[in-house]
Specification:
This protein is of the alpha+beta class and about 950 residues long. It is built from 26 helices and 35 strands.
Length: about 950
């Protein structure tokens, strides 16, 4: 049960009035120290939208109806597509304009205009990448005339709302900004909508963080150790999405029914890692028959393979550390970088359902935020036609027309992150005004960017770009040290004497994803669904499909580069051999329709088996969630069983821990021997919690609390304390041997040679994060009790597996005693594993009274890392929930009105509105709301109706 007791009651008006009175009293009491005197009940309520009656909306061609249910979820009915999107813009601005405004300032690199000089570094980095510039190019050159028309209609709707609403009538956040710096929002534009796709793509960008982490790890670990920490995908245990199929050698297109031919069955082997710090480059791993591994980027003696050096340990380390820190500061609107970015989706054919038609489930795992990233709504042409083809409902992004995930009258679709490797870091050999490529000096492409700062002077930056992309190292003083120790002869005064770092990323090329999203909304069958998916270039998502005729399907879309290496480490930008050679064509990407097994599961696992000839990525999720879903489906359909909507909903809340199943038997065999009998008894009390535990991580489970604490401490002892400071949690300090010191731990006089070294990584992205990659790492050494990873230094160190596990069990016992009390029977996982919802701007950095007004929580949650109910946490940083199933839906293709959905928070972005977080309690319990779709069902569930007139 949630710890939070402030959720809206059924008596909305009475409850809201009482809360507002309390707020008023509190604000008056603190009036002398802040914003209290400025805000009042009228200020808080001024932005609540009108949801009934009649309003005029300039530009409409006819009347539009907006029907809201008792959770404030709107269904819009219009006679034309333009009126539909004009009304969508108006309604979303009613509920969420603050969120929309912040997003567009983020994607344009203009947060400093709203929040002051603390955002200049973030703005400069985003300006360097040029999100807004690319969005403008997409709008000008790539998008269809029809899409542009819809984008303009949406913008007109937003601006019609803005015309009559300013300051506190927009939201309470504007009251705060108006008080501080007299900020006034400007008109919405179509490019504001398109640019949001860049933020979405950034948070789903693939393996950039892993590329940085591997490079940083190489400063302390050997190539063999790094390979151990990034094990191969367990194809023999965890099934890929598409089982079978091949690229036809004649058509060059993927055929799900084809069999690979001899000599064409292997993916390109993984390239060996570049030598770092004088270490040799790794040897390429062999592909399966038909392809050989690409050799390492450096010769085996660690010398550069081509054109200069790539072993610049000191400069490269400091540069990548700074880049990682810069990435941490960019608001992660979709989720923290790393293993948590994921999702579940699966679809079951009617042959295995109680309805006789497909059931489709989806729950994207993203960063918890208030309001939720998603906005539920329906968009309905009163009569569908070629001119007005939309009859669709689902989850939208406030700020963009159309529906992102959901269903229309014919088909349903869901998304999970494919995780394709679409980014590469390049080391660039530079002078002050040029860079080296193919033995020639090439001038930078440059542009000036001016950053306006609220309460301060303008800042001007120069953005430099190479053929590979923008020079991201220009945005941080530490990044200027990249390669300072490298053997580079060319002078580069502004880059010391080493390398700059540029970023190649598919999202920095103009694309057609906005077209594709709207095409998905009006697709009617699998052929039109695939055609729409072909334009879904960035970010690359697994798209699952079902239709009312009984078909199920899958399509992998995306603009995925073809490269000679594997993109696992920064590449030498001056060498043409490391350039991208093209992109996979849509027809080459995996898909399937009505597979014999009768269901499709996508949960960030490998898309295909090892026989697929193209390298999509080497950094899949490791399949813990996907295989659990496979197993749950198989357990239901064996012996003729059928799956119901209730079963799909129950599967979404599955809390089983794979790592607990693997590790607990070893923990129960440990003979605990502490320093004294009392301590031994204390630890054994906790150990006994694991006896008979079913491995489910329920919120009230003491065993789940203890196991996860043991898992966290095991990872810290075996791996975390051995990683370089750049990967460890900020502020966590150890005494370690200095870098490059291979001597004894003590000098000849008996003095210690160890130095104090503190971690530098944000807790949400530190390592080891405890995700299913780490499940595989530990699985690989569990039967090797004397493996070096089990050994720790110091007088109280462990010498083998059992000693380390015993130490982890002791440390976990004392950690939970301090957090939860001495009585192990009073422990619960939910008290450790809490969700706090924070407004993404003023709720994090505003005055204390503002944070109090805007934030909500905590909730005690079940679930866990790499669990189907993925209430994720980072084992290096703590137990707090940092990513969640941001919404859940189950679509019933036999009767769309019997579909179900839930959002993390609510429809409204206005604090103290009845719908600010009125879905959260139900979400935390795993409940779903009825999802009305047909006109009759919507009318029956309507709680308020607004008429918009020309």
């Amino acid at each position: 049960m949630p710890a939070n007791k402030t959720g809206p009651s059924g008596k909305k008006k009475k409850g809201r009035r009482a809360r507002l009175l309390v707020i008023t009293v509190v604000l008056l009491l603190v009036a002398g120290i802040g914003f209290g005197a400025y805000w009042s009940v009228s200020t808080v309520r001024a932005s609540f939208p009108e949801t009934s009656g009649t309003l005029q909306l300039k530009g409409l061609g006819g009347q539009v109806k907006v029907a809201r249910d008792d959770h404030g979820i709107p269904q819009i009915y219009a006679d034309s597509a333009e009126d539909l999107f004009r009304a969508q813009g108006f309604v979303q601005a009613q509920d969420r304009f603050w969120e929309m405004d912040v997003r567009r300032h983020l994607t344009a690199g203009r947060l400093s205009e709203m929040f002051g000089d603390g955002q200049v570094e973030t703005d400069a980095f985003i300006r360097t990448m040029g999100w807004r510039k690319v969005a403008q190019e997409e709008y000008d050159t790539k998008l269809s005339a029809t899409t542009k028309k819809y984008l303009q209609a949406y913008s007109d709707g937003v601006n019609a709302y803005l015309k009559d609403h300013q300051g506190k009538s927009l939201s309470v956040e504007y009251a705060a900004l108006e008080f501080e710096n007299e900020y006034k929002p400007e008109k919405w534009t179509p490019v504001d909508s398109v640019a949001w796709l860049k933020a979405m793509a950034w948070d789903l960008r693939g393996n950039l963080q892993s590329e940085i982490d591997r490079s940083l790890a190489s400063t302390r670990l050997s190539p063999r150790q790094i390979e151990q920490l990034y094990p191969a995908y367990p194809y023999g245990r965890n099934k890929p999405i598409v089982e079978g199929g091949a690229v036809d050698p004649a058509t060059k297109e993927f055929d799900p029914k084809a069999t690979p031919t001899e000599g064409q069955t292997g993916q390109t082997g993984q390239a060996g890692q570049n030598g770092r710090n004088g270490q040799p480059g790794g040897t390429g791993t062999a592909g399966t028959p038909g392809a050989n591994g690409t050799p390492g980027a450096q010769n085996n003696n660690g010398t550069p393979a081509t054109g200069g050096g790539a072993g610049a340990a000191g400069g490269l380390r400091s540069g990548l550390t700074a880049l990682s820190g810069t990435l941490d500061k960019i608001p992660a609107l979709l989720g923290p970088s790393g293993n948590g970015i994921g999702s579940n989706s699966w679809v079951v054919s009617g042959q295995y359902t109680t309805t006789g038609k497909p059931l489709l489930a989806n729950d994207p795992h993203l960063a918890p935020q208030l309001p939720s990233l998603w906005y539920q709504m329906g968009l309905h042409c009163t009569k569908t036609s070629a001119a007005c083809p939309f009859d669709v409902a689902g989850y939208t992004f406030a700020g963009m027309p159309g529906v992102v995930i959901g269903h229309n009258q014919d088909i349903a679709w869901g998304m999970t992150n494919l995780g394709a490797d679409v980014t590469d870091l390049y080391l660039e050999k530079v002078t002050s005004d040029s860079y080296l490529y193919d033995n020639k000096q090439v001038p930078f492409a440059t542009r000036k960017e001016t950053i306006k700062v609220a309460g301060g002077g303008d800042r001007t930056i120069t953005v430099r770009s190479t053929r590979n992309g923008p020079v991201v190292s220009d945005r941080n003083s530490e990044l200027g040290k990249v390669g300072q120790d490298a053997p580079v002869k060319d002078p580069a005064p502004d880059r010391a004497e080493g390398y700059a770092v540029s970023l190649r990323w598919t999202a920095l090329d103009a694309g057609r994803t906005m077209d594709a999203l709207l095409d998905l909304n009006r697709a009617t069958d699998f052929a039109s669904f695939r055609k729409a998916a072909a334009g879904f270039e960035v970010p690359s998502q697994n798209l699952i499909y079902a239709d009312t005729k009984g078909n199920i399907g899958y399509q992998a879309p995306g603009r995925i580069p073809v490269r000679k290496g594997d993109g696992r480490m920064p590449a030498p930008g001056w060498d043409p051999a490391f350039q991208w050679t093209g992109f996979l064509k849509p027809g080459e990407l995996p898909w399937e329709l009505n597979p014999k097994r009768g269901y499709i599961v996508t949960a960030n696992q490998a898309v295909t088996d090892k026989k697929y000839p193209h390298a999509l990525t080497g950094d899949w999720g490791y399949g813990a969630r996907s295989q659990r879903i496979n197993d749950l489906i198989q357990s239901k359909i064996k012996d003729g069983g059928k799956i119901s909507t209730d079963d799909m909903q129950k599967m979404q809340m599955d809390n089983s821990s794979e790592i607990a199943k693997l590790l607990t038997p070893y923990l129960l065999k440990i003979n605990i021997k502490a320093e004294n009998e009392r301590e031994t008894k204390y630890v054994r009390e906790a150990q006994k919690l694991l006896e008979g535990w079913d491995y489910n991580q329920e919120a009230d489970s003491a065993a789940a609390a203890y196991f996860n604490a043991v898992w966290r401490n095991t990872l810290k002892l075996a791996f975390g304390n051995k990683l370089p400071k750049e990967l460890r949690v900020k502020g966590q300090c150890l005494r370690v041997r200095p870098a490059n010191d291979a001597g004894p731990q003590e000098d000849l006089d008996g003095n210690t040679r160890l130095v104090r070294e503190c971690g530098e990584r944000d807790p949400d992205s530190a390592q080891p994060d405890g995700g299913d990659r780490w499940f595989e790492v530990v699985r690989g050494i569990l039967d090797k009790p004397n493996d070096d990873w089990w050994k720790t230094g110091g007088r109280a160190g462990a010498g083998n597996r059992d000693e380390l596990l015993a130490r982890a069990m002791k440390d976990a016992r004392w950690e939970l005693t301090s957090k939860l009390g001495k009585d192990v029977n009073s422990w619960s996982w939910g008290r450790l594993h809490q969700l706090n919802l924070k407004n993404q701007t003023l709720g994090k950095d505003g005055p204390g009274i503002v944070r109090w007004m805007l934030n909500r929580g905590p909730w005690n949650l079940a679930g866990g890392e790499a669990t189907v109910n993925a209430a994720g946490w980072n084992a290096a940083g703590g137990y707090d929930v940092i990513w969640v199933p941001s919404m859940r839906m189950v679509v019933n293709l036999a009767d769309l009105d019997k579909s179900r959905w839930i959002n993390l928070t609510g429809a409204s972005g206005h604090a103290y509105n009845a719908h600010y977080y009125d879905q959260t309690d139900k979400w935390a319990k795993g409940e779903l709301l009825p999802w009305a779709f047909s006109p009759d069902a919507v009318k029956k569930g309507t709680d308020a109706e607004l008429t918009l007139k020309p």
